Amino acid sequence: MKFVPGRIEVAAGDAITWINVDFVPHSVTSKTVESGDLAQDGRWTWRAQGAGEMAYICRLHPMMRGVVIVK
Amino acid sequence: MNLKHCLSILLLAPAVALAQGKPSDPQIAHIVVTANQIDVDAGKLAESRSQNKEVKAFAKQMVTDHTAVNQQAAALAKKLGVTPQDNDTSRNLQQGAADTAKKLKGLKGAEFDRAYVDNEVAFHQAVLDAIDKVLIPGAQNAELKGLIGKVRPAIQAHLEHARHLQASLSKK
Questions:
Q1: Which residues are B119's β-sheet partners?
Q2: Is B111 at the interface with chain A, CB within 8 A?
Q3: What pLDDT digit, counting tens, does each position of B116-138 carry?
Q4: How many C-beta neighbours within 10 Å does residue A36 have?
Q5: At B170, is the pLDDT very low, low, confident or very high (cuts 50, 70, 90)?
Q6: ipTM of the complex
Q7: Is residue B14 a contact partner of residue B126, using CB atoms and an 8 Å limit?
């Protein structure tokens, strides 16, 4: 179980969509972001704001980690 | 020696004891469903008994994930027209799970948490070994083999989560 890619670089204003291709539910969760539970084939889109890093985990599987770098 | 002061140690053996011989696809399907159901049941027990927030969250996740796996397994069995077939490995699993549940039900508080998590570590390690050594190599149907392969990362993640929890509980 992991986010693929685990690290992504985007520009401010870009939209990023996470798709759950697993058959167990997952989430995209950070201090400021919460996708809610995404079931199999569930999608969730987040638009990057200002420059910085958004480190996130799957709230349901905290060993799953990812980071979005907003340039 | 005063026996009243002896430390009692509870060992919860991993509940996957594979029977001899190569299982058929219907038997593999039954083993998959049985192993998942065992961890759903253990998770429900821990959800209701544990007072530890992290243990309860882990247990809830086991219920959710293993239920999802079994839904996929049931859908695949239906699609393939396979009826899961009871076998010695499934029976060993069920017997081991019954013994474990009996032991867990006699424990409370931190003792329960440690025993539950220790068992989850052992159980997931044993299931991972079974996936690699028996279930994936043994499955003849490509879709069944694929399903088990897709389950493997979840089992690996559960094992890592359980080990993390085990380490955290041992510090308390």
A1: none
A2: no
A3: 999 999 999 999 999 999 999 99
A4: 11
A5: confident
A6: 0.71
A7: yes
